[in-house]
Design brief:
231 residues; 2 domains; 6 strands; 14% strand; DUF4304 domain-containing protein; DUF4304
Amino acid sequence: METNTRDTFLAACEKIAAQLAPHGFKPMQKAQTLRKTTQHKNIHLDIHFQSSMKNWSGSISLWPYLSIHSAVLKKWQVQRHGNKNATGTIFATRLENLTPLKNKNQDWNMAVSNQDQVIPQLCGLIVTYALPLLDKFEDIPQALQDITTHGVAFNEHFDTRHANLPIDFLCCFGSPEIAQTAFDNYLKEQKLAGSARRFYDEMTAKGDAPNKVVTDTTMRAAYQNKLIIRV
């Protein structure tokens, strides 16, 4: 990204941060990441803005990504699994996937002439669809129950096919029993029992297995937490 387009991109990030400040978001990394934390301080929502190396003055891409993290979970992952690269991530997706724009991979053009129109639209999506997601984690027992029953179907727009289940979160904030029930429901709903058995067999035989498909991330976490396949 050329210097002038990067400056324009960062200026747009700062304008977004200013519009979202009244909603409790705090800027980080020159406002490329905006963070809001739950009232109990154990979980936070990050909105991270990425851009393109191919920007020019008339087209400056901004791609918003949403993620839910927990420092408590990260510490638990390090202690439980010895994973020094743990991130404490519970859920992550492109922002649009929680909105009616799902699966469109929209580029938000932050060229100077577009900002007054585009920035309010983007902020509106964040307030309408991202904030309610964080609100779900204000009540952790309820969040555990919802995920156990419905997986990561956080709203009517998100497509849960090929989405991963936050096994570590369920174990850390809940219990192995809660995680097992959620895993059972997940395998039934996603029809992934065969995939789980394939992954478990490979882990047992070789001590490790590559992630051949997206949902192998769930299978790895389930295996590491000693969940069983009973569906």
